[in-house]
Write a structure and sequence with these properties.
heterodimer, A: mainly beta, 11 strands, B: 0% helix, 50% strand
């Protein structure tokens, strides 16, 4: 059975701090690793990673995949209160559906 | 930016009743999905739909559930004879290309409450 494990499950930091969120996966016939941000309702897409070692960046957010060690990290630098959310990691493989982790609940305090 | 839209945003129904959740995927997308998230739990895959048929379904998606694309734009999830444990947020999602080639985009969800 496919499995995605995220850590930490929750994290409280102060505005301006840098955070690293972790995701390890065991996905049969792995194809992609996706990161989503979930605030009140819909998960909104952040990154899709398919190749090892290539960093993807979007503003203060960046992510990288290690297919040998089967993990990914999501970095957020200079955090702001608007970054407070649940960050979801999902693995896509031979099966059609994505396997999600439980998420990391990130709280940024002013 | 185009988005996946879902209606209603909240549905309350009595146990044993049938509900239909509606979705309009992004217009040039070809692959459609339903996921659910029970409060405080993981997002779980229910079913995928491509070329007017189910391509894959999870163990959760039993005979109580069905999906349909009745016209060129709508994609529906029907739950027959709802149970208390069906209470959850149901997300519709779509992608342009096959899995692994393009990301999944989610709608805002329908919160289903079964009383």
């Amino acid at each position: 059975e496919d499995k995605v494990v995220q850590s930490p499950l929750s994290l409280v930091v102060h505005e301006g701090d840098t955070v690293t969120l972790n995701c390890s996966y065991e996905v049969t016939n792995f194809r992609s690793l996706l990161w989503y941000k979930q605030e009140k309702k819909a998960p909104t897409f952040l990154f899709m990673l398919t190749s090892s070692g290539i960093e993807k960046k979007s503003g203060r957010l960046s992510s990288i995949l290690d297919k040998k060690e089967l993990f990914s990290i999501l970095n957020i630098t200079a955090t702001q209160t608007g970054d407070s959310a649940i960050y979801l990691c999902a693995g896509g493989g031979g099966a059609d559906g994505l396997t999600f982790g439980k998420g990391t609940h990130l709280i940024i305090q002013p | 930016e185009p988005e996946v839209t879902q209606t209603p945003s909240h549905q309350v129904t009595q146990m044993g009743q049938e509900v239909i959740l509606r979705c309009v995927p992004i217009s040039n997308h070809l692959y459609f999905y339903w996921y659910r998230q029970i409060l405080g739990q993981k997002v779980e895959f229910l079913v995928s739909f491509y070329n007017n048929e189910i391509s894959e379904k999870s163990e959760i998606f039993d005979d109580q559930f069905s999906v349909e694309r009745p016209d060129g734009s709508n994609f529906t999830l029907k739950i027959r004879s709802t149970k208390l444990e069906d209470s959850a947020m149901y997300f519709c999602a779509s992608r342009r290309d096959r899995p692994g080639n393009s990301p999944l985009h989610f709608g805002n969800g329908t919160r289903l409450t079964v009383t």
